[in-house]
Amino acid sequence: MALHRTALPRHTDGARWEGLALAADGPDRPPLRCETADGRRLTVVQGADVVLPARRRATRRGVHYARTGRYVSPLPALRAGTARAYREACPDDDAAWSAR
């Protein structure tokens, strides 16, 4: 994305004013996204890799899918020791544990 300062068109009273014009090089795609195609096809794409190709059933009641094994979670794994520490912080209050 490039920013360029430029003179904008003159106002009706002839006064010159400046502004900031924003020129985008192209749309940015999110790193993890869902895409659709013809033929009831769906895909979950992470970066440039298809991680979950799928096809909607003709009855529109379900999806056939296949995992590719290329998915990498954007969130770090929650370790058991960390989960235990959270649980020990609120042992008698199940609502607080669920809220976390």
Low-confidence stretches: none
Spatial gap, N to C terminus:
38 Å
> What is the CA-atom radius of gyration, in angstroms?
25 Å
Amount of beta strand:
35-45%
**Tell me, what's the shape?**
flat
Structural summary, described in words:
- Strands 3-4-5-6 form a four-stranded antiparallel beta sheet, with no helix packed on it. A two-stranded antiparallel ribbon has the order 1-2.
- The mean pLDDT is 80.
- By secondary structure, it is α+β, with helices and mostly antiparallel strands.
- The chain is built from two helices and six strands, in the order E-E-E-E-E-E-H-H.
- A hairpin with a 6-residue loop joins strand 5 and strand 6.
- It starts with a strand and ends with a helix.
- The chain has one domain.
